[in-house]
Amino acid sequence: MMMKIQVFGMGCRNCHQLEANVKQAVAKSGITAEVEMVTDPVKIADAGIMMTPALAINGDVVTMGRVTSVQEILELLAEVR
Amino acid sequence: MLQEFADWVTYTLLGLVEGTPLASTVNFFVYDSIKVTVMLAVIVFLVAIVRTFITPQKVKKWVAGRTEGVGNVVAAVLGIPTPFCSCSAVPLFIGFVESGVPLGITFSFLIASPLINEVAAAMLLAMFGWQIAAIYIISGLVIAIIAGIIIGRLHLEKEVEGFVYKIKLHDLAEKAMTWKDRLAFAINESRGITLKVLPYILLGIGIGAVIHGYAPADFLVNIAGEDNPLAVPIAVLIGIPLYSNAAGIIPILEVLTSKGMAMGTALAFMMAVIGLSLPEMIILRKVISIKLIVIFAGILFVSFTLTGYLFNAILG
Predict the structure, then answer these.
(1) On chain B, which terminus has fewer CB atoms closer than 10 Å, C or N?
(2) Are the C-beta atoms of residues B119 and B48 closer than 8 Å to each other?
(3) What residues of chain A lie within 8 A of the CB of B55, using their CB?
(4) Number of domains composing chain B
(5) Host domain of residue B55
């Protein structure tokens, strides 16, 4: 099953940084994953997220309110896989 | 010890002549940047430990169901260690309102969270002493509590976009943290935040050091001294659209106050810069009406201005 990664954020600098980190981590890990930016505030709130940027892997919110580093994303991806 | 190190760098290592503007500038730069950086790293670490116990999800539960007054105080106090990025304003707002937190209490949190932050507190402590840092935190709390109560009393619930009330959130399960996790988080935060704001600190201290070394001691007395009543509201008006972090502003203020700017005016300016930001107001438009944004900004403008006058009168 293809991994699904979502980056939640309304488009601030931190959110774009997280998106870039995610793409870099995915490229490094060599897995195929779909990366989606969720910018709709209703969808963000609906996922239970109160601090952005947030990161979800396969629907599970793993980090909130901070720009997760490439290294940490790699570890998170490894955990799920 | 730190002063001796700064003296050594200035007079021995660089061989500058004591008493010249350049020597004074360099000495000030070395001393201030080291002191501020160390204090910042320590305080951010301590606040990050506290933060591991206070997530927005918990804050929401702690303030839901509280009455006006108590709820505003709790929300404002919890806003202190909670970090805030202007883009989080909307999901936070929805999360609070959806779980039944009254509008006024929600605003107490939304105001306190960016207005009182550990970076500003640490820098004020390092550059102005604990009294000014305490004045900043206490007046920030009072502003957040009173502004929230006023917004609550105005009954502006209809100024919130209707969809906010219709959202039904599911609660996220939070992972339990061990002390090891908390320490790792705090070390990471301390390093990350200190490194992130360091360029701003150095830039601010650099600009400040040049003013310190070259500008005459009284050059701001007439413009921004306590005898000019217009200085406070003008400083607040200039501060609102300035979207900067406290890290770059406070070193410059340290020098400006030494050159005649009144302390209350400096505090009011700083609060306007960090407590109210244009991007935040624009992004809040997604959940509240322009009318409520204007009320929100207006109350803060008046609060910051009054705070400036108050401390000009007390400290002047």
Answers:
(1) N
(2) no
(3) 64
(4) 1
(5) 21-315
